[in-house]
Amino acid sequence: MIWFIRFLSLITIVLFFGSTIAKEAITFQVSLTKDKTQLLLPVPNRLITVDATIQLTEMDTDITIKYEVFNSWPALAGKKYIRLLLLEVDQRPGDNVSLTLEWDNEKLKASDHDLVVQEHLNLIFPSSNWLAQALLLHPKSSALNSAWYVEPLSAYANYFTDHTALTKNGYPMKRASQWLYDKPQAIYQLFIMSNNNDWLEKANFLTKYYIENIDQNGLFKLIDKNDVKYSMPKGLLYRYLLSADDKAREALTKVYLNSLTWEPEYNLARGFWTERNQAAALNAAISYWELTGEVSALERINQIIDATVAMTFNPVSDWNLVGCPQHTYKSHEGQGGNSATCSPWMMSLLSDALWRYYRLTGDTRAASLIEVFGDFVLNHGIYWGNEKVDNIVIPKYLVALENPRYESNDQWTDHQHTCDVAGLLGKAAYIKSVNKVDDLLFTELFSVFIQQCKKSFERAKSKNSTNTWIFKPPRRFSWTFSSTSDLPWLVDLLLTENKQHRSKD
Fold this sequence. Notes:
It contains 16 helices and 15 strands. It is an alpha+beta fold. The strands form four sheets. It has a five-stranded mixed sheet with strand order 1-10-4-8-7. Strands 2-3-9-5-6 form a five-stranded antiparallel sheet, with no helix packed on it. The two termini are 34 Å apart.
């Protein structure tokens, strides 16, 4: 069990400037319950080098510590930075002890300790945003309006973590479909964005159950076939980064190795292929790369991205360039003809995996794919509902480019993907802004989808007298929230009146 430690209400990150040295420090309050107490600190990227000198003090008095770098940020080249730091404090017990952690990236000292993780260790971090930077790859921010997103997420999560209520409604934990799209990931994100420790405990419970149902070959025991879309690597990654749990590390390794059975390349002789499965395989590869930094994982990432680039910019069968990874309707649905097909909401899942790699590396292929995916939604992937749904703009579930009769647009269900497609549009709008592409029509579409996403939450609130809201089917919870944690800061950056004065990162 991880003991969650709340920091002082006033947390300081201090810079000490000398002629050639720049020190940084964070101050926090913690209870030392044993002679040896372990502290686990997730760290944002490009902050503490793996060979930095690290000190812990109390009232300017050095405290004896041992420390070990448990995880470093993956990088294509250059310096290596700490992502997960384990400290062991040798100090007499005391309650609410104020400690200061200092590091110096120019005064080098490699960690030479081999620590064994205790059952009870203390997760520490200065702020929710610090943790969001370290795990969710959000930018540094001191103030952000995220209530419109976090409060509905909490209301829905109250139901989707209530296993008695789910079982009563036909979804016991052993029913596999409710696990799709990484439910543990969504609950971990809620913990990080809300700073509510209850969600950490619930996410850990879900992840424990998932780990227990991964067999030695990385297969999900609740289904009777090898289906890569049941890979849930990011929840496992977050579990490790919040606890240094070896079981999460082992499970993620097995999930990644099993995901290698998915072939990312496409041709007309190919059978089943969807953007959803491509996204699952890419998420597994990226998560494993983040965990280990292994070259083979990076090669797998490049294989999947290159295959997606080929499908998008050099499609088979001389199909016209439209900005999506084209495949046949039959490949997607298992029946029907060979009309070129793409799914906007499944492209949202794929764009989120590409986005994570872009945030880690700045990869231009990933950025280009996200941008053209957004253009595809604008040009091909939307339709208007009628007056019964207030004439809203709705994302298509599936786009059949050569034979529209294969499209079965349903305004009563397709709108369920408004928030996740908004996530794709926001990421594409961000990349356009970085590339200094001023596309007012595209930004307006993003704004419209955000308004409709918010309205869906407001309607849910108006229909519920409690703070427990229900989605049907349960997997909708995960597809709505797992890939959209960036929406609050993207809205703040791209759609607020003062956006021209905000930094991009």
